[in-house]
Amino acid sequence: MSDPVEQKPGRREGSRKRPAKGADAQQRPDSRPDSRADVRPGPRADKADMPRRGREGLASRKTAASILERVLEKRVPLDALLDEHHGIPHFRDLDARDRALVRAIVGAVLRHRGELEAALDRCIEHKLPANAEALRILLMVGAAQILFLDVPDHAAVSIAVTVAAENRRTRDARGLVNGVLRRIARERELLAGRTDAARLNTPDWLFASWTEAYGEDTATAIATAHAQQPGLDLTPKRDAEAVAAAVEGVVLSTGTVRLAETRRVSLLPGFAEGDWWVQDAAAALPARLLGDVAGLHVADLCAAPGGKTAELAAAGADVTAIDLSENRLKRLAQNLDRLGLSATLKAADVLAYEPEAPFDAILLDAPCSATGTIRRHPDVAWLKTPEDVATLSALQAKMLDRVAGWVKPGGRLVFCTCSLEPQEGEAHIEPFLRAHPEFRLEPVLPAEVGGLAHVVTGSGTLRTLPCHDAGTANAEPGMDGFFAARFVRQG
Ligand SMILES: C[S@@+](CC[C@H](N)C(=O)[O-])C[C@H]1O[C@@H](n2cnc3c(N)ncnc32)[C@H](O)[C@@H]1O
Q: Where on this chain does S-adenosyl-L-methionine bind (predicted)?
């Protein structure tokens, strides 16, 4: 699950690189190949994206390759590696501009992995040996810069060759790196802009799952949305219009403030004052489904890092926030502190916890595969497996079953996950209602979610998709994939 409270700065790497060198040179008179600068400012680049010259350009590419090896081979989540304070030392030691470049390269490789693999398959004449993963990742790092980032081809190629030369696993393949990347640059027209790009960039099992659940056109639209790095969504504590004016964002119909570009969160106006927190527009919806919570004792289960706890507390609820992870609860406490909000925090396992008294309302944001957050976390597509979905689905069912008895008669229970997989959403409803006839499903009304009728299903559950319109014509579309169902305990 993404951290809805703090978002790292980064670069929007989803836009495709210029279609042709000639056209690009015309648009940007300053884009002459320059051996000193290895990233040229593109339409979405800013100064923070331009790394230092020389060996520092080398360090960012080496770090990007090493991070990608850890993600793709050792299955380490990207957030753990890219943290400015706790990430891998090579990353932390870079300056802000180089870190931005690393993020851009890693993001481009993960979002366009299928296209890059296809480009390599086309341009590598002989099959690489099975143990050539380091070489393949190095080639993807180079190819991503050529095809998807505003890096001059000559810089992408020459730095890749130098990186290859400095690694004993790739040293002997310097010539191949040079030849393959040059060919990719020459054949960019054939390699970029493929009509099957979205399909190629999505693991088969995920595409099959979305096709079965939503149909092939919607599955393609979801996969297409994943190619773009989303902007920044803020949940305002009080006055959305004032926050939007201060940060130069747009207020969505749901009340979220959207900025077109990801920015350094702690430098935005209102951060220190606690006027808002970072939370995707879709993630802000489930807590709303509890209705008017002012004065109610609400349990926020699986609460950290606290995006929904903050919403409930800001709405006047007396919140008990429970999470298994003490570390994540510490972050929740820091976040509430900045926001000037409070809640009772308990580090506990929902499957073992015994509340002293039932709650007026419960929000259960259960642990899930997080496939609804691939836009913001492109590594999720490559880290999660169908087995994870099955295991998490079983855990979610257990949690739902356990917490049912904690709701007072007449009270609401909202269950949600940030997964696109029906096993982690829709599939829970029938078994839960069968096992707990004291509950009924209370349909969500479009008016409760900013008038977004398209995110309310026929049975009255909430289902947002990455390709969904966020409800305001003058803001970028899209939102994370979320599922939520609202139950009421009768009598
Ligand atoms: C989807 S995230 C929660 C996001 C949070 N609700 C928010 O809006 O910021 C899931 C959380 O479940 C917690 N968790 C996982 N298993 C748990 C368990 N058995 N009991 C309590 N919390 C658990 C994890 O530590 C994680 O913080």
A: 302-308, 323, 349, 365
CA-nearest residue for atom 18, ligand 1, is 349
Name, in order, each residue with C-beta under 8 angstroms of 447's C-beta and a sequence gap of 6 or more. none
Question: For the stretch 95-132, what's the b/e string if a residue is b when 16 or more beta carbons lie within 10 angstroms of its beta carbon?
Answer: eebbbbbbbbbbbbbbbbbbbbbbbbeebbeeebeeeb
Over residues 445-488, the pLDDT tens digits come to 999 999 999 999 999 999 999 999 887 777 888 999 999 999 99
What is d(CA 439, CA 433) in angstroms, rounded to the nearest whole number? 6
pLDDT score of 263: 83
pLDDT, the chain, mean? 89
Does the interface predicted TM-score (ipTM) exceed 0.85? yes
Q: Which protein residue has the closest C-alpha to ligand 1 atom 27?
A: 304
Which of 123, 416, 418, 467 is catalytic? The answer is 418
Residues 40-54 have pLDDT tens digits of 333 333 333 434 445
pLDDT for the residue 191: 87
Ligand 1 geometric centre to CA of 322 (Å): 8
Question: Long-range pairs for 48-53 at CB < 8 Å and ≥24 separation?
Answer: 48/9, 48/11, 48/96, 48/97, 48/100, 49/11, 49/97, 49/100, 49/101, 49/104, 50/97, 50/101, 51/97, 51/98, 51/101, 52/95, 52/97, 52/98
The tokens for 28 are 């940007």
Considering the entire predicted model, what is its pTM? 0.89
Domains of the chain: 21-192 (1.10.940.10), 282-489 (3.40.50.150)
Cβ proximity of 200 and 272 under 8 Å: no
Radius of gyration of the chain (CA): 23
Residue spans of the chain under pLDDT 70: 1-56
| Residue of 302, 319, 351, 482 with the most ligand 1 atoms within 8 Å of its CB, for mutation | 302
Q: Is the distance from the beta carbon of residue 365 to the nearest atom of ligand 1 less than 6 Å?
A: yes
Ligand 1 centroid to 366 CA: how many Å? Answer: 6
Closest-CA residue, ligand 1 atom 10, reads 367
Query: How many Å lie between the centroid of ligand 1 and the Cα of residue 246?
Result: 32
237 is in an annotated binding site: no
Ramachandran category for residue 390: left, alpha or beta (phi over 0 → left; psi -120 to 50 → alpha): alpha
User: Is the minimum distance from the CB of 304 to ligand 1 under 6 angstroms?
Assistant: yes
Q: Is the CB of 402 under 6 A from ligand 1?
A: no
